[in-house]
Amino acid sequence: MAKVIGVGGIFFLCENVDATKDWYTRVLGIEASEYGISFSHGEAAKVFPKGAMTIFAPFKAGSDYFKPSEHDVMFNLMVDDLDGILKIAEAAGAEQVQPLEDHDYGRFAWLMDPDGRKVELWQPKEPAAST
Fold first, then answer.
1. Band of the pLDDT at 130, cuts 50, 70, 90?
2. Would residue 71 count as lying in a domain?
3. Is 2 part of a structural domain of the chain?
């Protein structure tokens, strides 16, 4: 049976495309091309063979989860070293907008991009081996 197997892209509007690409490169170390920013699913699977996944989750209108952003979308970016990414981000002038969280499925931190969009950084944790 035919089925959707993943997210092929996320497309969004911004005030200044070059400034937005520059922020993601400078603050998060993501390299942009003429097509935007791309990620290898294989790379994520190498680092987190069982924990890497893409979540496609609608939230009820009025949810506070995207705050302090006023946008109706938030990006969740998977990282291999949350502490390392945060050091790079802070050196580039980005500040966390809420305290770090640590859960059994991963660690999380949040920044705001230049368009006022909330960016959630997620370092997955591999599920514990079942005995």
1. low
2. yes
3. no
84 band by pLDDT with thresholds 50, 70 and 90: very high
Domain count, the chain: 1
Report pTM. 0.85
Closest to 110 in 3D by CA, of 128, 122, 102: 122
Inform me whether the pLDDT recorded for 131 exceeds 70: no
Shortest CA distance to 25 belongs to which of 15, 38, 8?
Answer: 38
Tokens of 72: 């109706």
Residue 49 resides in a domain: yes
Q: Domain range holding 32?
A: 17-124
DSSP codes of every residue in 93-113: T---SS--EEETTEEEEEEE-
Residues 6+ apart with CB under 8 A from 118: 66, 67, 68, 69, 71, 74, 75, 97, 110, 111, 112
